[in-house]
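Troubleshooting log. The previous structure file for this entry was overwritten by mistake, so regenerating from the original sequence record. Sequence copied from the archived sheet and checked twice against the printout by T.R.
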Amino acid sequence: MFTRASIVIVIFGSFFHVSAFADQILSLDEAESLAIRSDPGRLRFESQASALREQAVADAQLPDPRISVGLLNFPVDTFDRDQEPMTQIQFGVEQKFPKGDSLAIKSAKRKIGAMAATYRGEDRQLQLLKQVRLVWLELFYWQRAEEVIKQNQRVFKQLVTATQNNYAVGRGQQQDVLHAQLEASRLDDRLLSILDQQEQAAAELSVLTGLVITDFSLPASLPEMGPLPSRAEIEGRLQKHPMLQIAASEIEKSHKDVALARESYKPEWMLGVRYGFRDGNNNNGSERADFVSVGVSLDVPLFKNKRQDRVLQASQQQLSASKNLLDQRYLELQQKLRKAYANWKALEQRDSIYQLKLIPQAGQQTEATLFAYQNDRSDFTSLMRSRITSLDTQLKAMRIHVNRAKAAARILYFVGELS
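Regenerated output below.
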């Protein structure tokens, strides 16, 4: 038979329950390593950078020479090679020389593109690390929330039984039974919602790491991420962030485009050498001499105002746009960093309030209400309300603690370090 004293024991004893964890523990460091190794984007950017470096070597070379073979001035009546003096078999070689230093500039531009691809790969890894940290932390919260709810489920089911027995022997009221049943049902609903959120987070973490997360459990406590640098220190390092390095690469490429536009004012020229073989003899009986022809051709930029000038102006405007893009991205990163840092500081203060004040106060309130109920100075509704307040305070404290860690994970993205 359950009495007021037995109800007190049921509630008080729940505070000392310790949940067991699965043997296989997936730490945050392991999740990060798995995500980086299984990410196809990393290999994609590495391949792009390698391809651009190879292309840079090819861009620096002269175009392939052109070889020609021709039959010139053959008589169509006899097709005899020695009938006419101008009949010849001609072999030629031509080599094109592009404008100015355009080859070296194009090669340098490709190398800049390779560096930009490397920076894009680094930024993707930073984004991936941030994402896997946020998802891991979210799953951590829902797993811990499940444990808290299950602890309280056992308590509330026992309370339902206790109130039913008390009511059966005339020591309780029907409304106490209904109240206990209602709160137990609400916990069942909260657990279903938590399990749904847990499955979603686990599925997302499975995609990121390539693991079946249902086979693993997360650690019982959050990992130590170490002290964060000050906001001023991070802002001082923003210029080295991959996102800004990508924008800086665009400026370098635009500089090369301007240089290419200036080279377009110079002529592109071609050197050609042809050797003609002749058969037969001259009128005086001597052998006919072979012919050698050497020629140089070049293009002349006569209409510069309609072509070269326009290309130069366009490249200069693009250079200005690239500089503006760098400034824009810096301001955006700075704004996001300040917002994330302010959020982290606010959560740090709230976390401290919950750990030092609200959780102890909620526990003290529950103890006081239990004592009052045990001595017939409080009703069952107040007892339940204090228990629910304690549960909500636990979950809220855990949510703030996890959100603080998530805010730190967002800040680490701006630090720009992969290890």
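Confidence is low (pLDDT under 50) at residues 1-23. Archived copy saved in two places this time.
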